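Appendix B. Worked example

We walk through a single record from start to finish. Start with the input: the chain for Ribonuclease P protein component, Croceivirga radicis, length 125.
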Amino acid sequence: MNASLPHKERLREKIIIDKLFSEGKSINAFPLKLVYLPIENKINKVAFIAPKRTLKKAVERNAVKRVLRENYRLQKEVFFNNIQANFAFAILYLGKEIPEFHFIEKKMKVLFHKLQKVQSNDGQS
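Next comes the structure step. The output line below is what the pipeline stores for this chain.
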């Protein structure tokens, strides 16, 4: 099992990011929000966002993004075993303080289980 998060899996292309936020669908599990969009790439791409409006200090935003990245990195193999398509993801943190690692772990599992349900329902339709 490869539990790394290389740069090729990071969402950095402005065109895809703009398309993700204009045409993408979202799932909430407060304080996390997942915005996703199917893409043609061979790998999933992900971005982690902690807004400046709620977390004023860069140190706090970076700490939140670090927790989000680590949780995603550790759990991505489990999440994507049942999903056939490749996606562009943006995981947004909507809370006002730095979260606990295990709290974010639970919420991220909820987000991706909801995504799996949505994908399985779309496959049946």
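Two observations about the output. Helices lie at 14-23, 58-79, 101-124. The chain has a mean pLDDT of 91.
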